[in-house]
Amino acid sequence: MSSQSVEAPPTAVKPPILEIRGLTKVHRTARHELTVLRDIHLTLDAGDTLAVTGPSGSGKTTLLGLCAGLDDATAGSMKLDGHALEHLSQDARAALRNKLVGFVFQSFQLIPTLTAVENVLVPLELRGEVGRQKDAEALLREVGLGDRLDHYPTQLSGGEQQRVALARAFIHRPKILFADEPTGNLDAATSEPIVEMLLRLNRESGTALVLVTHDPGLAAKARRVIKMSGGTVIAEAQNAV
Ligand SMILES: Nc1ncnc2c1ncn2[C@@H]1O[C@H](COP(=O)(O)OP(=O)(O)OP(=O)(O)O)[C@@H](O)[C@H]1O
């Protein structure tokens, strides 16, 4: 009998979905220099949920924008799913984000000349995926817009536009979804299914969620909560969810 021990195969350790080191953002004008984010460090595990809270002007939207690649940092580094963004070309960064990231903006950013269904299909078209009309329609039904499929953004209320934006952010099943005030424009009855949908996406697809919110009820549904003030993270807590 062999005395060789059988070594367990190495377990694949998933990289954090998001790793931020020393992230800083300074806005410079001719006369002023304004540091809106200062030396932020943050690590988020794959599939985790994080609420970003803090008073108006504390830097929450700026942080989200940098994470989602909508803006460039003044200093610091970021990894998405183990990929160091500073080592990638602009095109490679865009492709990585297009694959991994979903984003819901505070101001929806729907394309005015496209219908609700066509707006939801945009992330797929950017990836060259066609023929997913039925999936887009199903998602819109899930957010309660089954009878608004062919409406244009101007024909939708603010809350309805918000829901189209959420469906658009979900359609390619991102690994991480950034949402800036996802229920900010919705009443309690409308926001509940949206929150449920976000949490279901997290549970069933393992999509990590980063939610900027002023709503303590929504923040309580995230496993981790950070509080920002003056461009820095001043407190961090964990919820038993
Ligand atoms: N392009 C810009 N140029 C100069 N200052 C900016 C610019 N964009 C944002 N700021 C400033 O950065 C600070 C942080 O703004 P940010 O939108 O990130 O705050 P926030 O915490 O998301 O606020 P709110 O809860 O009101 O949405 C604010 O003081 C804002 O005035």
Automatic annotation (TrEMBL):
ABC transporter domain mapped to chain residues: 18-241
Source organism, top-level taxon: Bacteria
SUPFAM superfamilies referenced in this protein's UniProt entry, alphabetically: P-loop containing nucleoside triphosphate hydrolases
InterPro entries, per the entry: AAA+_ATPase, ABC_transporter-like_ATP-bd, ABC_transporter-like_CS, ABC_transpr_LolD-like, MacB-like_ATP-bd, P-loop_NTPase
Annotated CDD domains: ABC_MJ0796_LolCDE_FtsE (cd03255)
Any single GO CC term annotated in Swiss-Prot or TrEMBL for this entry: plasma membrane
MF (Gene Ontology): ATP binding; ATP hydrolysis activity; transmembrane transporter activity
Swiss-Prot/TrEMBL keywords: ATP-binding, Nucleotide-binding, Transport
PANTHER family attached to this UniProt entry: IMPORT ATP-BINDING PROTEIN, TRANSPORTER, PUTATIVE-RELATED
Protein name per the record: Putative ABC transport system ATP-binding protein
